[in-house]
Design a protein that fits this description.
mainly alpha, two-stranded antiparallel sheet, 5 helices
Length: 152
């Protein structure tokens, strides 16, 4: 059995999690029954780079416009407004526009397509509500966003 074993030089890319010593005395690798070397060095992605990549994703929130955006300010009913129907419609429209741009590049992103359909339905329900509640405000919002006004 010792004649079948070969010495394997394993160069770890990162610090190994588990090491074992084979019968030939090589640390970091294990030789299977048929003499095939099997590496036990499991290289996990470092936590620091993983956190950094998450920060980059979190910093790039193009699909979530802020309330301080100048194009959103005209739809606020007051300085502390964060949830009126007209403001919600404007915020949804900005998210829909960014997802539409994303889908022009990534045509097979089906999860994004589903999310876009959900947002479109939510905006449709809000516009119907605003149309029933205050038609003048509905017209102002639709003209401000460049959306089509549906006749009642």
């Amino acid at each position: 059995m010792a004649a079948m074993m070969t010495t394997v030089m394993v160069m770890p890319v990162c610090a190994p999690r588990a090491t074992a010593t084979s019968s030939s005395g090589v640390t970091g690798s294990k030789v299977a029954a048929r003499g095939t070397p099997v590496s036990l060095n499991v290289c996990a992605r470092p936590v620091a780079s993983r956190a950094q990549s998450l920060q980059v994703v979190a910093a790039n929130k193009l699909s979530r416009p802020s309330l301080t955006d100048e194009s959103i300010q005209m739809f606020k009913t007051g300085p502390n407004d964060s949830g009126s129907s007209s403001l919600q419609i404007a915020l949804l429209t900005k998210r829909i526009e960014s997802l539409t741009e994303h889908l022009l590049i990534n045509k097979k992103d089906y999860a994004c397509q589903r999310g876009l359909r959900i947002l479109l339905g939510q905006r449709s329900r809000l516009t119907k509500y605003l149309q029933k509640k205050d038609y003048a405000e509905y017209e102002r919002v639709m003209n401000g966003l460049g959306l089509r006004i549906k006749s009642a």
